[in-house]
């Protein structure tokens, strides 16, 4: 039985920062950000959004009554969870009115956990015929004002429903993966911003991609000619390109042109959103499916997932008949275009106004809106609407 991604959706905050303006304020040549790093804009996350609201807002776009009956497991992948004990999946279960007769769990391994969640979901469906799994990958990437990582911040959530007979893509059983203790990015539990060695991270990412690509070819017998496109984890878009450049010459001239065009397609949404850690590789997939003009059912895409610390996985998916009907391409493009632009001053004020102290009974700056919001703290408890 084919199992894979039946539905896919994305949500990010309503505010966006222009990185040319950020570069000017920081005294940096804007080309460094837009060409050297490959980012144009960044989502700015107000204090009434967190991983729970963004995850629930993403999932709300795709959950219907059939899903409510069939979802047996909710897997919430995040690096920036809101509680050291309670799973974000429990909040989502309640906000989305999902059945209490379901399993709920939160998982963590930097930016990699979304992929682990997806693989667990596939295996779960294989063992529980007829059931569906909701996988949410939701994060806020924070490095700090005036830091080298600032230009690679962002945030948002991707939600996926994994089922039998999926309408978008099957997940093939061809994963190769590896993990190794590396100090390229981590976040002690008393910190809200990551500690990062960005250049080491780039080196390990490239190395793990190349190692896994060789292993994948050996184990699967496939070559680059078997793929219509690649989706990479994109902390910034240049990172995926650096990894891909290591193997692109394995393709003949015409397919090489196609693969490079589709790599650009896979970067478009990330260029406007920034990093969303666990969800980034799936935003790259959504971007590829939304912008590539030439993908056809039956073709295969390669997915490279990386999480600092470090763990990586490479696998393929196969596009299903009429997959494009189920990809929210226009909706996502419109939502990104409709975001409200904030000035650098407003961005800094929003960045510094996160409600991090659970001891204070305090309300967030939430406007009246019809999507889920974090309302603030009450007796140490997070309140949502
Ligand atoms: N015009 C065009 N290009 C320019 C330029 C200009 N005026 N000035 C510089 N550049 C280019 C540089 O040549 C360089 O290009 P290459 O990498 O191709 O050589 C690029 O711009 C960046 O320049 P620097 O390396 O000098 O920039 P930097 O020292 O400020 O660091 C960075 C850049 C490493 C990306 C930094 O922003 C950073 O540390 N970001 C955060 C780290 C990160 O995202 N790591 C990924 C972690 S994986 C993850 O997502 C975390 C997780 O698992 C949860």
UniProtKB/TrEMBL annotation:
Keywords: Acyltransferase, Transferase. Residues 3-163 form the Hydroxymethylglutaryl-coenzyme A synthase N-terminal domain. The active site is at 79 (proton donor/acceptor), 111 (acyl-thioester intermediate), 233 (proton donor/acceptor). GO terms for biological process: acetyl-CoA metabolic process. Its EC number is 2.3.3.-. InterPro entries: HMG_CoA_synt_C_dom (IPR013746), HMG_CoA_synth_N (IPR013528), HMG_CoA_synthase_prok (IPR011554), Thiolase-like (IPR016039). It comes from the Bacteria. The keyword Acyltransferase applies. (3S)-3-hydroxy-3-methylglutaryl-CoA binds at residues 29, 143, 242, 275. It is an enzyme of class 2 (transferase). One of its GO terms (molecular function) is hydroxymethylglutaryl-CoA synthase activity. PANTHER family: 3-HYDROXY-3-METHYLGLUTARYL COENZYME A SYNTHASE, HYDROXYMETHYLGLUTARYL-COA SYNTHASE. Belongs to the thiolase-like superfamily. HMG-CoA synthase family. This is Polyketide biosynthesis 3-hydroxy-3-methylglutaryl-ACP synthase PksG.
